[in-house]
Amino acid sequence: MDRRRFLLTSLAGAVAAPLAVEAQPAPQGPARIDFIGNADSKTQASSVNAFRQGLADRGLIDGQNLRVEYRWAQGKTDRFPGIAAELVRLKVDVIIATGSVSLRAVQQATSTIPTVTILLIDPVDAGFVASYARPGGNITGLASQYEEIVTKQVQLLAEAMPGLSRLALLHHRSARPVTTTAAAAAAVKLRLTPQTLEVRDVQGFAGAFKTARDARAQAMLVLPSPILNAHRRRLIQLAASHRLPALYEFRSYVEDGGLMSYGPSIDDMFRRAAGFAGRILNGARPGELPIERPTKFELVFNLRTAKALGLTIPPALLARVDQVIE
């Protein structure tokens, strides 16, 4: 009996007699999930808590009937291949890999270990799965085609700043060109002049902001990237010091002092990713679990940051905000 099949049996017993299960653990031990984090435990604390809650919702408790290990890349993409190779050696039961860079490393390391991912790109176009309905292979999870979202982000920035004419687009080198192209096209459609800025690592952040300011950019759109998110506090500091209003992908940026965000609820996506892991541990094949899309989107403003920048958010836009941080 493998560990996944054992877990299904033990979960059924745990509902009726959890103490008995703890007193008589099977020799195989609990199933193991390994979570690859792009940043560190502090930066991704909210998402990790949402993931744990998603597991708990399915009766999966770390340290009781499940073992979860967390490995952190600390915003360094060159760490992913080594982490993926280690997980293959350990023969873990399920891998949680978020973002295209970490998922690519896992994909190159194994075609058999079930992998649940959270992506902000089209996983079919990127070559990760065969289709949304039937992914095939060992990968499934959640995906948001972010090239569709950036259009809305540009519109929101234009609404927040009625006089906006020059917009900087900041992206990490690992980002797929389609997202940057979509953002630039959305800006042009709104008669804005876009300026695309690529960064390779955190050392390049300051130079990118200086370039934006030298070109008289009036605002910045930080395009989706797990690597940029890993270093989001540095981005927020630079936006403040350059007095450059910026829109980000997740509410965590705004909670840390960023001006505004619009995008899918990443915590909700992590919670749902735990559901995928639970189904796989109960015997489902990842290749037969359809890729799901996010269903919860959030528009968040930080009014303290707006005040510091001398911005007055139009009341009509504030009326549509999901959360205001004051």
Describe this structure in words.
This protein has 326 residues and is an alpha/beta fold. The protein folds into two domains: 173 residues, Response regulator (Rossmann fold); 147 residues, Response regulator (Rossmann fold, 3-Layer(aba) Sandwich). The chain has 14 helices and twelve strands. Strands 7-6-8-9-10-11-12 form a seven-stranded mixed β-sheet, sandwiched between helices. Strands 2-1-3-4-5 form a five-stranded parallel β-sheet, sandwiched between helices. Strand 6, helix 7 and strand 7 form a beta-alpha-beta unit. Helix 6 runs parallel beside helix 7. About 7% of the residues have low confidence.
The share of residues in extended strands comes to 15-25%
Side by side, the strands of the main sheet go 7-6-8-9-10-11-12
Q: How is the CATH topology of the largest domain named?
A: Rossmann fold
Secondary structure class reads alpha/beta
| Helical content (DSSP H or I, runs of 4+) | 40-55%
Total number of beta strands? 12
Spatial gap, N to C terminus:
55 Å
**Mean pLDDT across every amino acid position:** 91
